[in-house]
Amino acid sequence: MDRRRFFAAGCGTFLAAQVGCRGTQTGEVMTADRKDTVGSHAAGAETYKPLIDEALGKLLARQGAAVHPVGHPGVPPAAKRICFVGVENKSSEDLADIKAQLFEVIDTRVNTSGAFHQVSRRYVEIGLRDLRLRPDEMLKPENLRKFQAVMESQGAPFDYLLFATVTSGTTRDNDRTQKDYLLTLELVDVHTGTPDKESASLRKLYKKSHGLR
After folding, report:
1. pLDDT tens digits, residue range 162-187?
2. pLDDT tens sequence across 42-85
3. pLDDT reported for residue 15
4. Which of 16, 26, 195, 198 has minimal CB crowding within 10 Å?
5. Radius of gyration, CA atoms only, the chain
6. How many CA atoms lie within 13 A of 148 on its CB side?
7. Looking at residues 208-212, what average pLDDT do you find?
8. Phi, psi of 111 (to 5 degrees)
């Protein structure tokens, strides 16, 4: 093959790679009966939705039973005022936009449970910002008293603090990786310091395949 023909063939291959092999992206609305897409590299909706359903369902059921004592028919119990501090990520993965969605889902579920009154997230963010506090500093007595005072000044007193923590454990076996995801919810009575914890776990297997090189 002479130089001119070789150059032409090379240009044709290059153009085909640039134009003919260009990928496209499409989308479709998923109906309620469709299963969530399983993430290939990290946890997503298929992992966190079941964790919330299990852990929060058990915690709300137990706490709901505690505020509806037997023997007092016709007397509605006072709703527990809960301050949801936020979601702390201690896993090996970046939660990205899922973190905000976890907060909203938990916040909504608590507030619509019927036995609880959820303090507005906006008040919580203002209180934490004004005091320059991190969620993990909330249980120090001095910090808690200051935070309670700020929240009461906003007309948003509370009886309980709710913490959510995401952790993960990794087991590797050559081209296979198992990750154990754990969601822990901790409800703390700020008047007595009594905690109530509930957790849910889910295992997920990741496989890596090697194509032709």
Report:
1. 999 999 999 999 889 999 999 999 99
2. 788 888 899 999 999 999 888 876 655 555 555 556 778 999 99
3. 47
4. 26
5. 25
6. 16
7. 72
8. -70, -25
For 9, the token pair is: 């063939």
> Structural domains in the chain?
45-67+78-207 (3.40.50.10610)
Strand order in the sheet with 80-89: 116-118, 80-89, 160-173, 176-189, 195-207
DSSP assigned state of 137: G
What's the gap between Cα 12 and its chain centre? 49
Q: Which residues neighbour 140 within 8 Å (Cβ) at sequence distance 6 or greater? A: none
Cα 112 to chain centroid distance, Å, stands at: 18
98, 178 Cβ separation under 8 angstroms: no
Beta strands in 14-78 (DSSP E): none
Could you give phi then psi for residue 53, rounded to 5 degrees? -60, -45
Please report, as a single letter, which amino acid is at residue 107. Answer: D
Per-residue pLDDT at 97: 87
E-strand ranges in the chain read 80-89, 116-118, 160-173, 176-189, 195-207
Q: Which two tokens stand for residue 61?
A: 């059921």
